[in-house]
User: What shape does this take?
Amino acid sequence: MQPGRSYVSPDEIRALSARSDLWGVALLVHCWGMIAGAVALFALWPNPLTFLLAVALIGSRQLGLAILMHEAAHNALFANRRLNEWAGEWLCGRPILADLPAYRRYHLQHHRFTQTDADPDLALSSSYPTTRASMARKLLRDLTGRTGLKLMAIRLAYHLRLAGEAEDDPAELDLTIGYFVRQLNRGLLANAVIFALLWAAGAWWWYLAFWLLPLLTWFQLVLRVRNIAEHGAVERSEDPFRNVRTTRANWLERTFFAPYWVNWHLEHHLVMHIPARNLPRLHALLVARGLGPRMTTARGYGEVLRLAAARPA
Assistant: This one.
């Protein structure tokens, strides 16, 4: 049973949980449209400022693709189940080298064991609060691509380790290597399509500049900020109002750090299958019932980072 059912009626949850294929199409068109628009911005006015702005906008929309894949993992992106799986896999996950089925298994464990020792996401939040110097080093590693390259190396090493553990069993070894090759090939196929489209639109190096560079830099930074905002420097408890945070975001923060209602994270944990667009309505219902003071909230991402870097040096 999801904790939100103790505070919201079944009829209200049913109304908030309605899926929409039209909304799914609109969100994907918006996300990919912003990516195309950022590239077009540089193409029309090529200079260092528009280049940096394009990289930041694309990295933020790569986070947007991760968020829409998260929606698909909860079967909330489209009403049509087959469309939800296909779009979540090929239009959201594979372009950023993510695997929807594997993510779904992992992520549902996070919901079940939030902020406990069995939470697979605990490593992403347990080191906060940290010092300001440590936070600065983490963000610098993200922006310089060191985090992105390290994560890719870890993923490769993980699959190689699985293959090594299976080497005494040829059938299991074939399964492990076959799975890894399939996942790698699917990600490479999606990226090959992006490479071809960017080359056709401008030049081959646009793929490096406007897809791979944002994926290794700005995407890593905003992904870290998102993880900190959701579960960093909150209570280690099973209280659904204290072990997760909702962050209020202005239009600039929604553009660069919190696309597609990802900031309403406490509400998402209360009823995880509600489409993200309806989470503000769930928040309003909870506040109207006097639950606002119980919620862990922040007044913006600046406040989140200050809380997460509040440990004395």
User: Anything to note?
Assistant: Residues 3-142+215-308 form one domain. The radius of gyration is 20 Å. The chain is about 65% helix and 0% strand. The mean pLDDT is 91.
